[in-house]
Amino acid sequence: MPHINAAAALQICVLLSALPAQYFISQWYGTDSVQRIQITERLIIASWSSFTKSYLSLDAWADRLKLWLSKTRTCLNVGLLILHFRNWYYGEKKTKIGDNEAETHSYFAESSHVRSPKPEYIQFSVGQVIVHKRFGYSGVIVGWDVKAKAPEEWLRHKYPPAKQDLKDTPHYRILINKANGFGKSTAYIPEEEITIIMGLEVVHHPDMKAYFSGYDGSKYIMQPWLKKIYPHD
């Protein structure tokens, strides 16, 4: 079988392409001028007709508009679906975070729920200075709950089975006096561990001004926002 190189292949392609070109030339130049004009007119008319049908026809533009709207509507529906999903997802996430934060701030007498009326069995008040009976540190009361409000894990660790009854007694949030060098800044303790001190004004703690505006000789004076939560203290 003879080998065909690139040059031979090129020559064959040129010869083959010459046939339709020769036919076109013979058809064009084999006619007189009148026929050539008629052929040209037919070509122009056919081209113009095709152009008008494609670009100047109202039906053609209507079809294009329908196609574009269908694609746009599909994209819009997908976009709305994605938007709804994102709103749902982040809304649910935000709600859960908000619920968790609200639940966290309801622990350890940090809830902003107004303590009114004040139960008679709550012996102590916000602003009173205390001493812990067992550990000996001093501090000031900044909040109370009618019973312990804390995470279950904290309660299990704080109160073993023998002391479970203490969970249902009043609990107080304490700012611990830094002068004691106790190491902790706050405490949440049951009522039975508290002794009130009268006439002791100085409690050193960085949050004192946030809770209190002064001292009246028997206890610290609550800031207005704190007084709204504990109106009877």
TrEMBL record:
This is FBX21 protein. Keywords: Signal. Residues 1-21 form the signal peptide. GO terms for molecular function: DNA binding. It comes from Chroicocephalus maculipennis (Brown-hooded gull). The keyword Signal applies. InterPro entries: Clp_protease_adapter_ClpF, Hemimethylated_DNA-bd_dom, Hemimethylated_DNA-bd_sf. The keyword Glycoprotein does not apply.
